[in-house]
Every structure is written in C-alpha cells, then in structure tokens.
Amino acid sequence: MFSDSLRIVWVYPDLLSTYGDRGNALILASRAQRRGYPVEVLEVRSDQPLPATADIYLVGGGEDGPQALGAQRLIADGGLHRAVAQGSVVFGVCAGYQLLGSSFFAKGTKYAGLELLDLSSDRGPTRAIGELAGTIDPRLGLPPLSGFENHGGRTRLGSEVSPLAQLTAGIGNDTRTEGAWRGKLLGTYSHGPALARNPALADLLLRWAVGVNQLPPLDDTWSERLRAERHAAVAAAARP
Ligand code: GLN
User: Fold this and answer.
1) Among 91, 151, 190, residue to substitute to test ligand 1 (most atoms within 8 Å of Cβ)
2) Any residues with Cβ below 6 Å from ligand 1, and which?
3) Residue whose CA is at the smallest distance from ligand 1 atom 6
4) Ligand 1 nearest-atom number relative to CA 149
5) How much distance in Å is there from the Cα of 127 to the middle of ligand 1?
6) Is residue 94 annotated as a catalytic residue, yes or no?
7) Cα separation of 239 and 32, whole Å?
8) How far apart are the CA of 1 and the centre of ligand 1, in A?
C-alpha cells in the first residue's frame, strides 16, 4: 500500500477508455503531486498482467464488446481482486462500474462481472444520454455530483452497497439513484471526466489511498466555473 509514491493504475486503456475517462488519471496525478506526493501512473493494457499492489485502480467506460472482453480478462487475471483484498482504492466509470458487479448485459448477452460490488446491470428501455446531477451520500461529505452519461444499461443495487448519489437530473442506475460505493470501491455513470468535474471526489479517492482525513486545499477556480456552468445548463434544461 501507499509508501514512498502513489501508484495509480489506468486499467486497460485499449478497451476501457471512452468519453475522456483517461482524464481521471491525469486529475488524480496532478492533485496528488500538487500536495507533494510523488506519483506513478501505470497504463496496463489488456494483454498485460495487472499489478496487484497499486494504490488506486481506474476502470473507464467502454462499448459493449470491449466491456465484455475487459471483464473476462480482469476475472482471468485476478490482479484487481488481489488488490481489493489488500485495501486498494477502485474507481469504475460506466462500463468500468457495471463490470465491478455480479453481471451485466452486452450486445444482448449476459456476462459475469467481478463481484466486487453487490450490484447487477441489465438493459434499460432507452439509452441514457445527457447530463447527470445528484446529491452525494452525506457520509462521503462531498458537494453535488456533476457528470455526463451515455449508457444502455441500468443497475440494481444489492444491500451491501450504498448509492453514490440521489439524482436531481439524468437516469443513472434507475432514474432515482446513481453509482454505488462500499469501503474504498466506488462506481459511477459519470463521464466528463468525472474527476475533472468533481475535484472533491478526486480528493476523496486520494484521501482513501493515502489514509488521511484531509488534504491541503487547491485552487479549483476553473473546475468551479465548469461546475457552475453545467449546473446552470441542467437547471435551464429542466425549466418548462
Ligand atoms: N456498454 C455499457 C452500456 O451501454 C457502458 C457504456 C459506457 O461505458 N459508456 O451500458
């Protein structure tokens, strides 16, 4: 676990990397470095073994085919399971969120997930595309969620996970809630990338990884502007 440098793994960039999700690795690395933590970002392709001793694993979105392949390779590899067993942080987005559960649908076929989170996904009546916004679980102590979603799946949460947010806009899991978390594992439908639009969420992952309750504040003027602009856009779209 975290010792001399913070190790961030960007999982399977060749399969799971839609809608700018790679930006999540850049944001985490930058926010850690600006607090003085040395950082290593490892990009691990799907034909490479996944190291099991990194601090944070980022699993991004993907189309159905790459998502199914990515899940099969992660199950066969076992590295992510070993990492979770020893306390690593995992952040999954969209396909990378669905595949942390017990099952998901891709191209009409049901696939096994990694069973790291108590949830399962099936197909919804429509494709969910657009802005996502919501009130985050108060136990996480974060400001409202802001993101962009594009997925066909819907996600049912089991009793061992908590929703990440109660929705104020968008479809998320089921039109009411969005994302899920348990321990140091957190999944969301938010692209954008999610950690650029939600710097406090990036800091939560960093705090989990380095084991501190607080990090020195950063100048977040630009992301606050983006958040305000997106918030105004969501409010304008909701007006009759
Ligand atoms: N293939 C999944 C779905 O459509 C995830 C899509 C994504 O990652 N953007 O639900």
Assistant:
1) 151
2) 18, 61-64, 67, 94-95, 150-153
3) 151
4) 9
5) 9
6) yes
7) 39
8) 31
Instruction: Scan for tokens 């440098």, then name that residue.
Output: 5
| pTM of the complete model | 0.97
pLDDT in tens, the chain (240 residues): 677 899 999 999 999 999 899 999 999 999 999 999 999 999 999 999 999 999 999 999 999 999 999 999 999 999 999 999 999 999 999 999 999 999 999 999 999 999 999 999 999 999 999 999 999 999 999 999 999 999 999 999 999 999 999 999 999 999 999 999 999 999 999 998 999 999 999 999 999 999 999 999 999 999 999 999 999 999 999 888
Q: Would the annotation count 225 as a binding residue?
A: no
Query: Active site includes 81?
Result: no
Contacts of 1 (CB under 8 A, 6+ apart): 53, 55, 86, 87, 88
What domains does the chain contain, in order, with CATH numbers? 6-238 (3.40.50.880)
Atom of ligand 1 nearest to the CA of 61: 8
The strand ranges marked E within the chain are 6-11, 39-44, 56-59, 89-93, 103-106, 109-112, 119-136, 145-157, 162-169, 177-182, 185-188
State the residue for tokens 């009130």: 135
